[in-house]
């Protein structure tokens, strides 16, 4: 059961790591966050967007993930997007392995690079991870509960695992094409790849979606993916300007895990 719950967490991280945009930026470290006024947003992401996913492990209701785009804020004087992912296991799964996580990511207003990342887990697997991005030195610094690691070099346009999903939504999709992207978790930085496999109509909860099927490569990811023989991760995103993730499917050693969009607010 513990391996299954950890694989659910890995699944969510993988979804968030499905792509980003190349761009170099400025520097930002932990500092004061202040609310910003309204800003014209020409990107496909709506301020106030809220997506709720139901997670299942086989036939078992495993939990819920909530993905939000919150109002603009200032991070050390830089106007920033603020994205949040909240993850919790169901009451049934809580008996075996309770997970409560809140992941936050800040990017520049063009969503072209990460500025700050935080992951706080208060369930059984406690974490308080912070990644600071210093774009003047092109480095990322990782800490957990205030215990720092050595900073690492990052590539221009590097995204954290959460903001990467929002970055990919600015990309043009074409069947049989490949998207490459730099991504960092603060410990390493690598080039990820995602394949646009095909267009596909899928039905979820009585609603039909015209989607692109995307398959990220998994060679750089550890944990349950590395331990599984021929693991698979599939992501369906709407084939419109919003590119909303509506379904995710992961097949690993502990079984099949799915996430489906059950509610959306724009």
TrEMBL record:
Originating organism: Desulfamplus magnetovallimortis
Protein keywords: Signal
InterPro entries membership: DUF3108
Cited Pfam families: DUF3108 (PF11306)
Span of the signal peptide: 1-32
Entries under PROSITE patterns matching the protein: PROKAR_LIPOPROTEIN
Protein name, per record: DUF3108 domain-containing protein
Top-level division of the source organism's lineage: Bacteria
């Amino acid at each position: 059961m513990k391996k299954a719950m950890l694989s659910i967490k890995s699944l969510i991280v993988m979804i968030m790591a499905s792509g980003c945009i190349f761009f170099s930026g400025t520097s930002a470290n932990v500092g004061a966050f202040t609310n910003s006024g309204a800003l014209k947003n020409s990107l496909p992401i709506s301020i106030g967007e809220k997506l709720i996913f139901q997670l299942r492990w086989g036939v078992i209701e495993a939990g819920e993930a909530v993905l939000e785009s919150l109002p603009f804020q200032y991070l050390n004087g830089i106007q920033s997007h603020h994205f949040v992912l909240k993850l919790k296991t169901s009451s049934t799964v809580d008996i075996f392995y309770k997970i409560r996580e809140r992941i936050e990511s800040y990017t520049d207003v063009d969503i072209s690079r990460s500025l700050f990342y935080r992951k706080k887990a208060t369930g059984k697997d406690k974490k308080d991870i912070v990644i600071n991005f210093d774009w003047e030195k092109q480095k990322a610094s990782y800490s957990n509960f205030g215990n720092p690691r050595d900073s690492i070099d990052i590539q221009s346009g590097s995204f954290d695992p959460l903001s990467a999903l929002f970055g990919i939504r600015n990309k043009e999709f074409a069947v049989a094409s490949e998207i490459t992207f730099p991504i960092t978790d603060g410990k390493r930085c690598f080039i990820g790849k995602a394949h646009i496999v095909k267009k596909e109509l899928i039905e979820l909860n009585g609603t039909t979606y015209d989607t692109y099927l995307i398959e990220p490569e998994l060679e750089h990811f550890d944990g349950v993916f590395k331990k599984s023989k021929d693991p698979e991760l599939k992501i369906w995103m709407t084939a419109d300007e919003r590119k909303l993730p509506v379904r995710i499917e992961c097949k690993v050693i502990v079984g099949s895990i799915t996430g489906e969009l059950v509610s959306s607010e724009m």
